Amino acid sequence: GVVLGIPSTGSGQASPKSGSVSAAAEVGVRTFTTEPSALDRGKFEEYRSLPAGMLLERLKLIYTPADSFGTYQLTYRRPGDTDQNLWLQAKRPGLYDFDLSWSRFQHLYSSDARSPGAENVVPGFNTLPVPRPDSTAWRNAPYIGNVRSVWDPMKMSLGITPTSALDFKAEYIHTAKKGGIPQSISFNGSSGPQREFVSPIDQTTSDIRLAQSFSAAKGPDGILGKVIKSYQFTVSYDYSRFQNAVKSVMVDNPMQAVSSPTLGAASSLVSLAPDNTAHAATIVGALSLPYKTRVTGSVSGSWQYQNDPFFAQTNNDSLKSNVNYGLVSNARASLDGKVKQSTVNFSATSRPFAGLTLAARYRNHSYDNSTAQFHIKALVVSDRSFALADSLYTEVVPYNKINTEVSATYELVRSLALAIGYSVEDWNRNVDERNAQTTREKTPRISLDYNGLDWISLHASYSAGERRYGWYRESGTEILGFRRFDISNRDRKRLNFLATVTPIDELTVALTYQTGDDQFPGAQYGTASDKSTMTGVDVDWTPNKRVGVSVGYSNENIDNILNMRVRTGAVGSATYDNPTYKWTNTNSDKSTTTFVSVNAVLIPDVLDMTASASSTEGHFWVYNRNAAAPTGGTAAQNLTATAEDWPEVSQKLQPMALALRYRMDENWAFTLRYQGETYKQNDFRTLAPVFTTTTLAGGPVATNFSGNLPGNIGATSGTNTGQYHFLGNNYNPYTANWLTFTVSWHPSALPLETGRPTF
Amino acid sequence: QKPAAGYAGNESCLECHKKMATPFLESGKGQLLMGRPRTEHEKKGCESCHGPSKTHANSGGEEKGEMITYSRKTTTTVADRNAVCLQCHEKTARTLWKGSAHEARNVACTDCHAVMHHESERGALKKSTVAATCGTCHAQKKAAIAKYSHMPLGEKKMECTSCHNPHGSANDKLLNGVTVAETCFSCHQEKRGPFLWEHTPVIESCANCHDSHGSNKEKMLKVSRPRLCQQCHPTAHGGSVAKSTDQATVRFAYNKGCSNCHLNIHGSNHPAGAFFTR
Questions:
Q1: φ, ψ of residue B200 in degrees (nearest 5)
Q2: Which of residues 13-72 of B touch A (CB under 8 A)?
Q3: By C-alpha distance, which of B213, B222, B214, B229 is closest to B265?
Q4: What pLDDT, on the 0 to 100 scale, is given for residue A639?
Q5: Which of A288, A369, A616, A642 to mutate to probe the B interface, most B CBs <10 Å?
Q6: B89 close to A (CB below 8 A)
Q7: pLDDT < 70 regions, chain A
């Protein structure tokens, strides 16, 4: 039997005959001095849960077998909380390794959503009262609480090592996701009415992964053994099944309580993710050959299936009177979707003599969708109108991608290595669905590594890729000279520089500089340029064994430029392809991160301290500019084509933490932790909108719509005239300050933790 | 058992290095090598990794001899150090180490892992988490996971290794999945399909629209909607300028932008979902 004992150190205490169990725990209380309101906790608790009150932070049980061989432990953090996890490990080195982990967490999308309806109260139905709420009702709608999904991933794995040459591993992963997520639907085309709603999530995934590996420390007997020094292979099979308990959601139209053949349905059905399954099988092999040559290869195949029953095209029965209604029946009852992917990979690396490394790689990946096409005779658009589309078939988009690469690395002088490489990436796509059937990207690269002195290491690399399509088929409905960024001609340059300097043993400084420059030659419209620059410095200072200090800073700037043109009026008219209606959009991003952390043993074995503070600041700007004032159309058309910058969007998060742990003796410790956070966000897109309509010439304000999300933008009074109905969720700014006091029993088994996520 | 020629034996090592060895002896590797070795190689204990150390021991630690050492100032080459680890760890996830991006960059196993005393709960890492370990070199990625829109790496709900195999992979960017999409589908299976109406960039790469390491935009988007969508759909809705103050176009800019209507943008299985609106 097992003896429950309390070891003097908190770690396992072996009993000569039966083994022993030891335990450690950390319990305490969390209290806020400044607590964000329930409406302001969206970003504060985005991926975590921080309630005030009692908490069981950690519980650890350790079993030590009689022979003291193996690791058997259970760690449970924050049981009962939304943010909790459990880890069970049973490991007998060289024999087996069993691991069970379960980690529940939430993804909080919104804490301040409002709606006059029942949002996800009955999953699959988002209802509104009859008669439909007017503007006043929308603007005074009640808060509906947190909109979130709770993830419950459980992973169980068993590794068996019957001999040092064999490894078998079996994994089972079960993930449940429940809750809701804000989504949005339009009931009558792009002009609305539109309604944001809480879409239900009730999904389950089961994955099984099996893998068998074999490693031979020497080659086979006979002549092959003279060539093959050692070999390894792994065979694996993965199965994944996704199940969705709620396949659709019926959303009430905020403007229509009765379905209409012209204005749309009283309720519209939105499809949610269908069930699907996937299989994958992989064989990986490797041979070690003379001259330090290693040849590896892998072959994998995967298959995905989906065959959920189709929904009817529309639930708007009032459309039955339309002469085209008879054309909307589904061509078949379900998709019977089948996708097959295959990948073949070969690589070889060799060091024929000291200082020289040669490498080559070939990879061929194919994606093939063998689903039979689905023919639409008449498409129901927004449950309101019919698009007669005899030629409308589902698009099957297979592709094949081949990567080939060779490289050579030569040590020019001791510890200074020069590497040159050349890679080619070929894509072959379905030209019926994509503008370009083939693209080829050729990328030469060069790098230098130096680590000849023990106080400095340097790495610098540069690559210059050139992607070209074979032939670009311009669509008749697209602007002449437009190119899609993912298949258009592209010149790509990348520069990386990394230096690690250790002037004294106690100090390490890491410097990083990276630039990226994508240019899209020949793209008169579409993405023209994408540039980025990142600079970073990290400093680690350990003046003595009791103190460690880390400081870091990074700055990143991204500029993405897109050329566009407004089209309005009839095909062929002066405003349809008017050169003055061209506008250029620049997305500019700036991100700055600064952090400092200190870990110190103030009094050895008695008083420990950890402190950290950081600041993460992000800004982005959307600049929209015309080269010259648009002309050639009516005043209204010219105004439509007149570009306008967006307001700046910014976020700033500044967390800090200070913790002191006092060890009274080997069995007891007390930890006092102070944490503070401030978050600021300014995003006009989700804040209560303040916008105006102006007269056609941009003159005086005609109507001033301001604030009052949720929704019904366009309505200025209590009349039911608005078109856009939002839940009004926004990550609100917050300030939070809180104290956590915990008592640890057997603290040596529970290291003092640092960083924002803790507590 | 008497040590082989050139070898000092565990007892000699522990005479001087007992304090350093204590945490190692409690680890799985220590238990195996020092307690229950299965092979002749494992029976060498400390010297199964450090090589013949008799010269070192006999000199009272003054001479290195044939020893293999792993400290920052070691003169043992990275290749020789890694070869020691690969003697036992070249199968399973490390089969493709040789020829991998990290091996080609001369990364040592001990740049990330600490055998004698590790900081992490799992994986014998030199830093407390995988993200912190990878962030030592990948500063841009480390900064990205702190951006406004990010996956929960900082919150310790996933790791870099949830998507990447740093020990070598047959796939681009050391991904675990054969493609970017397949990697993402390991958690987002609801987007796997196949759907009746597929959205091509979703199939080819999630990274066409998302920066999975973090972004200043919602949903880790690379650029804000509607600009994101207009990169491929320049004439949709007239190539609208989407002004923030214009009621006629505000629906394209506010809240979810294009997704205000095209909600099933990753694919729709609704027969009326050709434009991802149902």
A1: -55, -50
A2: 26, 28-29, 31-32, 35-36, 38-39, 42, 72
A3: B229
A4: 87
A5: A616
A6: no
A7: 1-17, 390-391, 688-722, 754-759
